[in-house]
């Protein structure tokens, strides 16, 4: 029964469950069954398609119109080395509202459009980075028609080097997710027949920016893993310490692994191998898999995955890839589409931050005002995680992906841009009452006049892990920005 009425009934049931304060909850079986059916995910994807169809129709997806800071062929970099955030704005072109970005404590170093990053289609999504043994910083920028490669120079300039198109036999798709494994990147897509591409980033060490290379999807890749049910996966997750990747959200949900965690051995990246899967809680939208280092002595040294499973935070013991166990499965006030999250410290796993992608749209729980909510979880007891509090952004928008670096969480919040929260107070104040917004850079001025929009526009992803402090931000419509926190 995949009817709109059923969705409406389920969502009003969710609404009715919301109390005043955020709290963990035992998942409701009927609600979980609805999520397991895929109907909520299909509805979410349909909403995104509607937004992107509208953006295409209006011309907003034509990335050529967004002038790169340094036009290729024009020679010199733009007059200013970087554009500082001054009095709450980074003014790239004076008098041009579309080139004036609201900000706090983050400066602008570069922007290159998808067109200038070699894409015919544009439509950006994921991104990742790789630091070479000598410290050069390379990035991968997902677009509907492949992955663009670039280097961020010591001056913070983005230099296009080439690209890897989507896998042979697969259609273009905005859903292209990329993660790093040692000197490789691993690429999955929601396109049927895509499989998982493994590419050796050290090829870029000899790339020539004067003649960007389109790498062959057969001859130049390390491998393509075709063990997915129909080649389509929502995301890829890496446990580098344990030498494996995980395909999450691989369609269809009716397959043996039920779109759960599909483990792929990467010991030999030329020959990825199936290790088994965790079907126990059905569809996994995103996950983080780590060797457990934390206060729950029962699990020290075990291989743990924190799963973001649409209506629950689900914690797995995946030490044995062929017989995984679920340690706990927990929902929370306002749960609408549990999307992604990250532990605040992989070396001491006591807390994690979680983002929900539909609570702002559904206007439920703490997100009733349409402002992005960062949910704080105390995971000191893996069998009984506690949702201790949340941070409500002052901006209007939707939260999407976040990664924690040194106690700060860096978030891609669609139309409200890159947001940085200072989480260092969480261990002493788990409610999050002392969490503050340390910095932001709003890459989507298009919605400023309206005070922000709850919509799937602006930034999809970012990569905040470079030693230099440069942060790559990939946007859906424009292209990629290089930003840096003000020092
Ligand atoms: C895209 O934008 C560029 C620059 O504004 C323009 O020259 C081109 O005609 C546009 N392409 C389409 C298909 O509208
Ligand atoms: C685990 O399952 C995979 C895939 O079914 C299989 O290839 C592998 O041999 C199994 N490993 C063990 C240790 O049972």
Which molecules are bound besides the chains?
Answer: 2-acetamido-2-deoxy-beta-D-glucopyranose
Largest sheet: 6 strands, antiparallel
CATH architecture: 7 Propeller
Total strands: the figure is 32
**DSSP helix count?**
4
Gap between N and C termini, in Å?
A: 55 Å
Secondary structural class: mainly beta
Any idea what the radius of gyration is? Answer: 21 Å
Anisotropy-based shape? globular
How confident overall, as mean pLDDT? 94
Describe the protein's architecture and organization:
By secondary structure, the protein is mainly β. The chain has one domain (4-485): YVTN repeat-like/Quinoprotein amine dehydrogenase (Methylamine Dehydrogenase, Chain H), CATH 2.130.10. Helices cover 9% and strands 37% of the residues. The protein has four helices and 32 strands. It has helices spanning 4-17, 29-36, 39-58, 359-362; strands spanning 24-25, 89-91, 100-104, 106-113, 124-131, 137-143, 146-152, 158-164, 176-181, 184-189, 196-200, 213-214, 223-225, 235-239, 244-248, 261-265, 273-278, 286-291, 303-308, 313-317, 325-332, 338-343, 351-356, 373-378, 386-392, 401-405, 408-412, 418-422, 436-441, 459-463, 470-475, 479-485. A hairpin with a 7-residue loop joins strand 22 (338-343) and strand 23 (351-356). It is globular, with a radius of gyration of 21 Å. Mean pLDDT is 94; it is low at 1-20. The site of one 2-acetamido-2-deoxy-beta-D-glucopyranose (NAG) has 4 residues, from loops. This is Regulatory P domain-containing protein. Residues 1-22 form the signal peptide. Keywords: Signal. It comes from Bombardia bombarda.
């Amino acid at each position: 029964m995949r009817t709109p009425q059923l969705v409406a009934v389920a969502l009003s049931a969710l609404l009715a469950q919301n109390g005043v304060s955020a709290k963990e909850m035992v998942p409701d079986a009927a609600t979980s069954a609805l999520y397991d059916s895929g109907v909520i995910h299909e509805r979410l994807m349909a909403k995104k398609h509607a937004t992107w169809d509208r953006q295409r129709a209006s011309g907003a997806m034509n990335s050529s119109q967004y002038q790169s800071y340094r036009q290729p062929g024009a020679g010199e970099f733009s007059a200013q080395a970087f554009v500082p955030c001054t009095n709450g704005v980074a003014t790239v072109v004076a008098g041009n509202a579309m080139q004036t970005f609201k900000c706090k404590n983050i400066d602008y170093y570069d922007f290159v459009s998808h067109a200038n990053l070699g894409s015919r289609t544009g439509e950006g999504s994921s991104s990742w980075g790789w630091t070479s043994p000598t410290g050069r910083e390379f990035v991968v920028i997902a677009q509907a028609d492949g992955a663009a490669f670039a280097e961020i120079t010591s001056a913070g300039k983005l230099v296009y080097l080439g690209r890897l198109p989507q896998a042979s036999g697969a259609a273009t798709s905005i859903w292209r997710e990329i993660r790093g494994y040692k000197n490789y990147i691993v690429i999955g897509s929601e396109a049927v027949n895509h499989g998982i591409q493994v590419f050796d980033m050290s090829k870029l060490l000899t790339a020539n920016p004067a003649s960007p290379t389109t790498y062959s999807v057969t001859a130049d890749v390390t491998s393509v893993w075709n063990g997915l049910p129909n080649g389509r996966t929502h995301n890829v997750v890496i446990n580098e310490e344990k030498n494996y990747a995980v395909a999450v959200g691989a369609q269809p949900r009716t397959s043996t692994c039920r779109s759960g965690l599909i483990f792929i051995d990467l010991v030999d990246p030329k020959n990825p191998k199936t290790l088994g899967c965790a079907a126990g809680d059905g569809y996994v939208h995103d996950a983080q898999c780590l060797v457990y280092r934390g206060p729950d002595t029962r699990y020290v040294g075990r291989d743990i995955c924190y799963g973001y499973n649409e209506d629950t935070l689900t914690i797995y013991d995946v030490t044995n890839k062929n017989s995984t166990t679920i340690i706990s499965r927990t929902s929370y006030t306002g749960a609408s589409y549990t999307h992604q999250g990250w532990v605040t410290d992989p070396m001491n796993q006591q807390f994690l931050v979680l983002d929900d992608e539909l609570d702002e749209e559904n206007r439920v729980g703490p997100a009733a005002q349409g402002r992005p909510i960062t949910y704080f979880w105390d995971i000191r007891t893996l069998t009984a995680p506690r949702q201790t509090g949340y941070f409500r952004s002052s901006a209007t928008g939707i939260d999407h992906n976040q990664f924690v670096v040194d106690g700060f969480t860096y978030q891609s919040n669609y139309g409200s841009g890159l947001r940085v929260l200072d989480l260092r107070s969480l261990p002493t104040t788990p409610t999050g009452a002392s969490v503050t917004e340390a910095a932001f850079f709003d890459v989507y001025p298009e919605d400023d006049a309206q005070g922000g929009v709850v919509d799937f526009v602006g930034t999809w992803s970012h990569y905040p892990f470079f030693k230099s402090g440069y942060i790559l931000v990939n946007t859906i419509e424009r292209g990629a920005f290089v930003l840096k926190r003000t020092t």
